[in-house]
């Protein structure tokens, strides 16, 4: 088992503020309690389906014990020194940034694009997050530090793809989306997997543990971005089933 580490970084403002002094990042061993996310890169919003929005994991999460998970599909292990360096760099890049960044007034208008989320855990234990609308499209109109933070996280994603291993878990998030007019022959609802209940507008989701998650994975093997297939409930309703592995802190 990895040594659980709680990383203490310099206090970060949760609102726009002037930049502080150089980072004072330390790590204190904490054997009790699970590892926590200490740095992240994710996205929210944009023109995506309800299913994709429900299943979309952070692009990269760095945990205090050195585990890095990318897209809930790949994993990489960092040393303590590498985690310290990553946290210190993210702190430097995000210190003084507002909760939601605003591009320069002459930036071009961009719509239907996901907002980038960059985060680092502060000394008070709270995750400082900075949201950056359309960062990839108008990067030159934002402070360079925001692009640098994203590049740092992107580098970890690339390493996990080339050097890492597949990420799996015993828990999954399942999403059922109504598909009454979908083409194809639906399969019988997988035994041991709960059927949608209540209102489905337009999706129904549930987190599954152990036996139920195993039954779902067996019925809908992973192989594309996320597992998905057409199924019919005992009442005759047809759904597309999709899922992804849950992260340790979910």
Description:
The two termini are 19 Å apart. Helices cover 20% and strands 29% of the residues. Helix 2 runs antiparallel to helix 3. The longest helix is centred in the middle third of the chain and has 20 residues. The N terminus is likely disordered. By secondary structure, the protein is an alpha+beta fold. It has four helices and 14 strands. The chain is globular and about 55 Å long.
Q: Outline of this structure?
A:
This protein has 250 residues and is an alpha+beta fold.
Stretches with pLDDT under 50, minimum 5 residues:
1-31
Overall geometric form: globular
Number of helices: 4
| Mean of pLDDT | 85
Order of strands across the widest beta sheet? 8-7-3-4-5-6-9
Strand content: 25-35%
Helix content: 10-25%
Radius of gyration: 20 Å
Tell me the number of strands: 14
Element order: H for helix, E for strand: EEEHEEEHEEHEEEEHEE
Structural class: alpha+beta
Main sheet summary: 7 strands, antiparallel
Distance between the termini: 19 Å
Q: Can you lay out the helices and strands and say which pair or pack?
A:
Layout (H helix, E strand, L loop, with lengths): L4 E4 L17 E4 L7 E8 L5 H6 L4 E4 L3 E4 L3 E4 L2 H15 L20 E7 L5 E7 L10 H20 L1 E2 L5 E7 L8 E2 L14 E6 L1 H10 L7 E6 L5 E8 L5
Parallel strand pairs: 11-13
Antiparallel strand pairs: 1-2, 3-4, 3-7, 4-5, 5-6, 6-9, 7-8, 10-12, 10-14, 13-14
Features:
4 helices, globular, 250 residues, 7-stranded antiparallel β-sheet, alpha+beta, 5-stranded mixed β-sheet
């Amino acid at each position: 088992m990895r040594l659980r580490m709680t990383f203490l970084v310099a206090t970060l403002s949760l609102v726009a503020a002037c930049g502080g002094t150089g980072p004072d990042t330390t790590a204190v061993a904490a054997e009790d309690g699970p590892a926590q996310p200490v740095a992240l890169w994710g996205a929210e919003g944009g023109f995506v389906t309800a299913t994709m929005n429900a299943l979309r994991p952070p692009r990269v999460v760095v945990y205090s014990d050195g585990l890095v998970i990318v897209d809930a599909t790949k994993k990489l292990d960092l040393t303590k020194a590498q985690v310290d360096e990553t946290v210190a760099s993210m702190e430097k890049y995000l210190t003084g940034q507002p909760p939601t960044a605003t591009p320069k007034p002459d930036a071009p208008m961009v719509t239907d694009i996901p907002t980038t989320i960059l985060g680092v855990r502060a000394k008070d234990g709270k995750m400082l997050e900075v949201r950056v609308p359309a960062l990839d499209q108008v990067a030159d109109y934002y402070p360079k530090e925001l692009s640098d933070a994203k590049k740092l996280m992107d580098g970890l994603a690339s390493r996990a793809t080339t050097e890492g291993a597949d990420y799996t878990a015993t828990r999954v998030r399942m999403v059922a989306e109504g598909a009454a007019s979908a083409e194809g022959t639906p399969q019988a609802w997988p035994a041991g997997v709960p059927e949608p209940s209540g209102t489905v507008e337009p999706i129904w989701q549930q987190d599954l543990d152990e036996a139920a998650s195993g039954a779902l994975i067996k019925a809908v093997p992973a192989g594309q971005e996320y597992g998905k297939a057409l199924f019919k409930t005992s009442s005759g309703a047809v759904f597309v089933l999709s899922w992804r592995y849950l992260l340790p802190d979910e």
